[in-house]
Amino acid sequence: MSGALPSMGDSSELPAAAERRMGDRIAASIYRDPDYVDDPVLGDYLQSIWQPLMKAARARGELQDELDERFAWALFLIRDRSINAFALPGGYLGVHLGLIGAVNTPDELAAVLAHELSHVTQRHISRLMTQQNRQAPWMIAAMILGALAASKSPDAATAAIVGGQAVAAQGQLNFSRDMEREADRIGFGVMQGAGFDSRGVAEMFEKLQQASRLNDNGAFPYLRSHPLNTQRIAEAQSRLQLAAAATPSPEGRADADRAQLLHAMMAARARVLAVPGVDALRAMLAEAQRRTDPPATAAARIRDAGVLYGGALAAAQLRDFAGARSLWRQLPPLTEGVVRARQAVELLGIEIDLLAGVVPPSAATADLAQATTRAEVLTVSRSLTAARRGREVSDRLQTWVTAHPGDAMAWQMLAVAYGQQNQTVRAIRADAESRVAQRDYPAALDRFKAAQAMMRSQPGSADHVEGSIIDTRARQVESLVKAQALEDKVNR
Questions:
Q1: Residues 30, 159: one domain?
Q2: pLDDT by residue (tens digit) across 231-288?
Q3: Does 267 lie in the same domain as 216?
Q4: Is 399 part of any domain?
Q5: Contact 264, 305 (CB under 8 A)
Q6: Measured distance CA(387)–CA(364) in Å, rounded
Q7: What total number of domains does the chain contain?
Q8: pTM attached to this predicted model
Q9: Half-sphere exposure of 163 (CA within 13 A, CB side)
Q10: Does 140 share its domain with 52?
Q11: Residues whose CB is less than 8 angstroms from the CB of residue 185 and which lie 6 or more positions away in sequence, other chains included
Q12: How is 322-369 classified by DSSP, letter by letter?
């Protein structure tokens, strides 16, 4: 346990299981949103920050066993250039690409994620919903979705909320001052416990303060749901003074530089994937092409890595594949000895080839069995699928989804690999599982029933084991569909 002050106390009346169900319903809508992004490379980077924070929260006793087990603890990437992150019921958290692209260090990103994590572990969302306990849970979920839509487009919000409900919906996402201060305090301790530099909090507060003074032109919706006040700022500054870090050792500085190098590339990736427009992509490409001299300092080396990575990806998005490859070839020397950064560069090379419609040269020798991270497994799988090595892909992905059944993209890619091998029933089942992973149970049930129908019409289309799995999963998903329908009926 930590030596932190006691929390405000859990005044929530909403059981963890009920909150998770509500979160699942909201998540299902977000998965279907065209602005939802499943990018394995950025996802792995976020997880490299998120998992140490989770571990620290457990070690400090901030994360109750029940919440740890019941909640989803899933991160959403949202294609939005604004600077924002938000917590949702049931352990779901959203991160805008604009936030990743705007922060200068992984420590700043960790500061935001630790704060949002603390809102969840302290049951702040559930407490707010308890205050609205006269509202049916489905209506509260709709109001939250409406508030999220309003942060992007006032017109889009009207699809989810109407009339006076808009004010209540905004209130659902606006934590009280005491909750904000508690999340600041606990998040600070979690961030330190995870090994991140506490100066990241100061740097993030400085960005938010500056935006607040400029009266927020819409680029910082985070300020609307997490407003600053003088007390929060003063308390944060006091913590930073008490936690003044010692001068880092040479080894510590080297580790920080390696983290910065990867962050520079991932921030550039986020800016490109946020779809900033053709002019912005051209500007990123031009900046990378202007680079001439090799970097002389560590800071210049880090900056160059981000510029070159962003320029190469921007060029590929503009379909200038020759330019993309030229910039990409300049990246490996910059990342020599930095394993995760080097892997990011290698995966970018494969991605450029795939965007160009070319089978990556590495597909001829790639050993998918050696891939370990999600980005590696899925990117190399795409490469081998393009090379018509579907059997190797299906073998590796079947192992992967067994360990990660909620990975919708992996299931979708497995469906393609089975399709290449003319294993239609297995392909349909994999497609169904991808719908389950995205909480779209009616669509999943339709796919399972289609697989059953094919097995009846073509008895040799699947073996007995596969048939038994499909029958069992169809019954399980059908029960989920019925439970959702009953819950909707009760809450009308």
A1: yes
A2: 888 888 888 887 765 445 555 555 677 889 999 999 999 999 999 999 999 999 999 9
A3: no
A4: no
A5: yes
A6: 8
A7: 2
A8: 0.89
A9: 1
A10: yes
A11: 4, 5, 235, 239
A12: HHHHHHHTTSGGGGTT-HHHHHHHHHHHHHHHHHTT---GGGGT--GG
